[in-house]
Structure formats: structure tokens, C-alpha cells
Specification:
single chain, about 325 residues, alpha/beta, six-stranded parallel sheet, three-stranded antiparallel sheet
Length: about 325
């Protein structure tokens, strides 16, 4: 069992790697990133983080070997590859700038990964997530069951954490489902949210539930506002959970960004919907019943994601 994490010199990637190692199901985690130059000095963040994390293994009690590298040949034979590489949007940078830069990064990374691991499964964490998953799918040539994006697990985790805080209960007892794109257009489904089987709508007032939904939509922005940079602990743990479900064939039901080909009457885009994750990747796309208002929200989310995808395609045509 071998897992590769690209972008592992950064906070999200290194957290993915450590979360996988601490779960102790993989034989090896390969951490890939580019070298960094500062004047006459050359640094290797992925190698340094891998060494630091491996030195924690006697304390944390895991056997998974962590290897840092700048050479994709070291990723050969990876069962699952997680791509976190990319740049954050900076002041003065347009959405098109971000699309162009990150799409080139994700495309190049994907091509290198499948060169050495042609049967791998790819999980995308890079933003804008839905479009970057499309880029990876196109560049890899892999079956749609083997390419997916991580967003829904992070969004539901935030939703559950906020609910647990409000209700003063364990987050482990809360199950929820969110669909659609990542961020402001996500589709909350309180009807499918329970606390130990009890519908959450019986435990919390509507105005408080609505406020938690809105906080969840802006969860990433809240972190940025507090730290001046984006989150990494929760995104890293979410990606690691996906890897675990696949590697251990757990058949977990998670919301993930996947290619839809008629499900929910949506075609030809990656959008967050519930799927069954296990050996081989996506075993099944699950279609849940949506009422009229939920369907309208999903259509609005589809429209927003499709708009970004069309902008990307126009940019590539130029």
C-alpha cells in the first residue's frame, strides 16, 4: 500500500501525509514537492517535513514510512495519489490568472504521476477544486471512477463541528450531507442531517440552523480571516479519510466531486454528490431524493461550477 502526496512541502499536503501515516494503514507515503531557492541556499521542504514526521513515529506509534522527494520516479507504483499542489489567489490576481496557473500545475503533476503509476487513483485538493478535478481527469486518461475531488467531506465536517458546538454533543454522533460545489454555492441538506438518528431539525431552531449553514458556506473564509492563510488541518484530515476508505475497501459513503453523466440530470461536469468509496475508487454514485427547493439550490450550484469551467475552457482556447 503506497500513497503519494504532491504539494507535501506545504501545510495541506504535509497534513494529508501525516494524517495517513498516523492512521497506519499504508506501507509508505511519498511526499513530493519542488525545491525552494533562497539566494545561494536550496531547500527541500518535502524532504524536511517527511523526516520531521518520521521522527515522530516512535512517539505517535505508527509504522508507515514517510519519504520526501523532488523526483516523480520515486512515486512509482502508487495506489493512490493526492494532489494539493497549486498557488493561492493573491491580491491583484484575477480568477483567470488562478485558473491558468493552477491548471498548468495540476496537468503537469497528473501526467508525471500516471507516467509512473498508470493504474493509480487520483484525489484532487487543489483549487478551484471542481475545475482542477476536470483537468486531472482529462490529463490522466483514467476512468472517471479513479479521479475525484475532496470538498464535500471538509464541508460536512465543518457543518457537523458547528452543530456539535451549538448542541453540546459529540461530533461523532452527527451525520450530515452537503452537495454541490465547494463554498458559497454548496447545497445544505438539513433533512439528511441527524444526531444519533434524531433529525437535527427537532433539536435546533430554524434560525440557528440557518446561521450554521451560512457559517459552513463561508468556513474557509473564516479561517483565512483569523490566520491570514487558508486551512490545512481539516482539509488534510478529509483527504486522508478518502484515502483510507479506498485503500481499506471500506465502502464509506462520502460527498465527493465526481464526473456526472446524467445523475441528478446533470452531465459533463464534476460536482459534489454522495458516492460509495472503496477498492478501485468510486464504486457507486448515489442519487438521493431532493425536494423542489433543494433541487433549485443544486441547479444554482451546477450553474456556478459550469460557469467557471466554461471560463477555463475559453482561457485554454486562447
Amino acid at each position: 500500500m503506497k500513497v503519494t502526496v504532491v504539494g507535501a512541502g506545504g501545510n495541506v499536503g504535509s497534513t494529508v501525509a501525516l494524517s495517513i501515516a498516523e492512521r497506519d494503514f499504508a506501507k509508505e507515503v511519498v511526499m513530493v514537492d519542488i525545491e525552494k531557492k533562497d539566494g545561494d541556499n536550496t531547500f527541500y521542504p518535502s524532504k524536511g517535513r517527511a523526516l520531521d514526521q518520521w521522527e515522530a513515529s516512535p512517539i505517535s506509534g505508527f509504522d508507515t514510512r514517510l519519504t520526501g522527494t523532488v523526483d516523480y520516479e520515486d512515486t512509482k507504483g502508487s495506489d493512490v495519489c493526492v494532489i494539493t499542489a497549486g498557488v493561492p489567489r493573491k491580491p491583484g490576481m484575477s480568477r483567470d490568472d488562478l485558473l491558468e496557473i493552477n491548471s498548468k500545475i495540476v496537468k503537469g503533476v497528473t501526467e508525471e504521476l500516471v507516467k509512473y503509476s498508470p493504474d493509480t487513483i487520483i484525489i484532487i485538493v487543489s483549487n478551484p477544486l471542481d475545475v482542477m478535478t476536470y483537468v486531472a481527469h482529462t490529463a490522466s486518461g483514467l476512468n472517471k471512477s479513479k479521479v475525484m475531488g475532496m470538498a464535500g467531506i471538509l464541508d460536512t465536517a465543518r457543518f457537523r463541528a458547528f452543530l456539535a458546538q451549538e448542541l453540546d454533543v459529540s461530533p461523532k454522533d452527527i451525520q450530515s450531507l452537503l452537495m454541490g460545489g465547494h463554498g458559497d454555492t454548496m447545497v445544505p441538506l438539513p433533512r439528511y442531517t441527524t444526531v444519533s438518528g434524531i433529525p437535527v431539525t427537532q433539536l435546533i431552531a430554524k434560525d440557528k440552523l440557518d446561521a450554521i449553514v451560512e457559517r459552513t458556506k463561508k468556513g474557509g473564509g473564516e479561517i483565512v480571516g483569523l490566520m491570514g492563510t487558508s486551512a490545512w488541518y481539516a482539509p488534510g484530515a478529509a483527504a486522508a479519510q478518502m484515502v483510507e476508505a479506498i485503500m481499506l475497501d471500506q465502502n464509506r459513503i462520502f460527498p465527493c466531486a465526481v464526473l456526472l453523466e446524467g445523475e441528478y440530470d446533470i452531465k459533463d461536469i464534476f460536482l459534489g454528490v454522495p458516492v460509495k468509496l472503496g477498492h478501485g475508487g468510486i464504486k457507486e454514485i448515489i442519487e438521493v431524493d431532493l425536494d423542489e427547493s433543494e433541487t433549485e439550490l443544486l441547479r444554482a450550484s451546477e450553474k456556478a461550477v459550469r460557469s467557471t469551467l466554461e471560463d477555463f475552457k475559453k482561457l485554454m482556447d486562447k
